[in-house]
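Example record

The entry below shows one chain as it appears in the dataset: sequence first, then structure tokens.
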Amino acid sequence: MISGIDFKASDGVRAALSAIGRTEDLRFSPDNRLLVIAGYARRRLLVLRIDIEAGAHGPGVTIRGFMELTSDKMGEIHGLDFIDDRTLVLGNRDGMVVIFGLPREEPAGQSREISAIRRVKGKGLCKLNSPGSIAVRPESRGRVGLLVCNNYTHMVTRHVVNRWLGYRTTNNQRLLARGLDIPDGIALSNDGRWIAVSSHGTQDVKLYRTAASLGPETEPAGVLLNAGYPHGVRFSADDRHILVADAGSRVVNVYAAGGCWNGHRAPARSVAVLDEETFLRGRDNVEEGGPKGLDIDRTNSVLAMTCEQQTLAFFSLASMVGSQGGGITSA
């Protein structure tokens, strides 16, 4: 098992982490100052004020404070992503996709109820159903694309909202479906050329080339094999590696591009991120107990991971990638 980063936090922060219950996704803000965790079971968000610094022996992490957010528009929060530093979009597995503005004050142990800016429902064949993980894709003229995993209709839909119109939806599209069986995680490559989607039922990750012609019949150009029950998925900053959380085991799988993401490939490395005792406490069935959400911070030096039995853990990205780590930069 790989050693995690022993992060610094107050007793209050650690108590808030212990109380959040079952988690799903988590995400760093674009300015790298916040880390937000989806509190699925308790229908709330945990917002952490975070500092990441380079050190002689690897990156260090300090959590400066927390804020707990609730809303009558928060349900079983599965997915989340930032539109900008203070605007967040959530996927409620039991409801809709909702856009929120985060409070301006610094997280300092407070609890706040907040109101939604906009609900996104989709329409017709693109009507949202069991929305889960979400990826935000900036588009032109104030528009933002929301790529949403519809877990139990086995497709990814695209919903274009316009920030200048109060995030009103201007377009809905059935984006991806071929090869997907319970899409449970989604990520965009940093160069914008690839969309990676975890496919829980087929136990792999499908990779699609971005193109104007994308549609539900588009075949995946690449497949990441032996992924277990994949959930969170992220590209490294140079797009040479993809890290995938396996909710059915103790590991995060690391895949190496080898020049391109076309074709089929097995993990280059599998890294245990949970000890056996913690894993078994969450082992209600063969699909559970392991890591769920993961994200890489904006310095490309720290990987954050969450699951119900271990609400938050940090790892050096360089140690996760190991001998496959050429080109990975630290803070």
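Notes for this example: The first helix runs from residue 11 to 19. Residues 324-331 have pLDDT under 50 and may be disordered.
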